Amino acid sequence: MRGQREQVPQWAVLVLFLPCLWWLTVPLLVGYQLACTARRLARRIFPVRPQGLVEDPRVLRVQRVRA
To answer: Over the stretch 8-67, which tens digit does the pLDDT of each residue have?
Structure first.
């Protein structure tokens, strides 16, 4: 049959192309782990809502406008 081509499934193309991206996979995984560790440490040092803190809505509004 002329003119008809069999299409390759997308997952097969991904499986064949994935080994070409090995150089990108390792830095992304390491960077993700570093970002999670940094976020966890920052949340421990600077909590989102510290206990015993009284919030003033006016001050919060002014801070948002300034930011």
So the answer is: 788 888 888 877 877 888 888 899 999 999 999 988 888 777 777 778 889 888 988 887
The CA-based dihedral angle spanning residues 50, 55, 58, 59, taken in that order and rounded to the nearest 10 degrees: -40
Distance CA 13, CA 7 (A): 11
Give me 35's structure tokens. 């970002």
Query: 3-class DSSP state for residue 21?
Result: helix
3-class DSSP state for residue 32? helix
Q: What is the pTM of this model?
A: 0.45
